Amino acid sequence: MARMVQGLVLVMALATLLDVTFAVEHVVGGGVQKWTFLHANDASTLYNDWAANQTFKTGDTLLFEYDNATHSVLQVVQADYNTCNLRTPIDKWMTGSDSVFLSNAGTFYFVCGTPFHCEQGMKVAITATGATVAAPPPPPAAIAPSPTSPSHSHAAPGVTFSFTLSVLLTTSLAALVWS
Questions:
Q1: Exposed e or buried b for every residue in 113-125, given b needs 16+ CB within 10 A?
Q2: pTM exceeds cut of 0.85
């Protein structure tokens, strides 16, 4: 009987670990629209309509893909999001393929940094749920960034857990339970 209880505890621990370890990468706007200027026939709520059909958790990544000659991504506070104030962003991304890691729960506000694009609907509010997770390590760089160019693969909030880490933890837990 004791072994059955220990086995049940292990299965529940595994299920919890696996639920936490699989982060999702969300391409903002979906696979077709992405982060771009809205056309006259697009709803001005297109990005928020897309976000309403997604589930965002801590550890997930937002991927903004766009033409960086005409667009950028600004993270702003709610008041600046509501009024499309571009003057005081919390953070800014400009590469055209920017990952934003969600490391803590809350609502995060993003707008295009090009004047008048936000007013025409190029903005999105993302609400993430879950426990706070540590930021991921920066990706390995082939060439070290120059001291004047900031790195933008950082967290606005963010992280992903390694599957290898969860396997190691699970193996250790199993060894403790059955020893």
A1: beeebbebbbbbb
A2: no
| Domain 23-159 bears CATH identifier 2.40.50.320 | no
Sign, Cα dihedral of 33, 36, 39, 42? positive
- H-assigned helices in the chain: 2-21, 30-33, 46-52, 78-83, 163-177
10-19, 29-38, 88-97, 117-126: segment of lowest average pLDDT: 10-19
Give the 3-state secondary structure of residue 109: strand
Domain boundaries, the chain: 23-159
Closest CA to 102 of 70, 78, 125: 125
Strand 73-76 relative to strand 106-111, pairing:
antiparallel
- Write the CB contacts of 52 (distance below 8 Å, at least 6 apart in sequence): none
**What is the rounded distance in angstroms from the CA atom of residue 84 to the CA atom of residue 138?**
30
For 59-146, list the strands marked E by DSSP.
61-65, 73-76, 91-93, 97-101, 106-111, 123-129
Residues 86-112 have pLDDT tens digits of 999 999 999 999 999 999 999 999 999
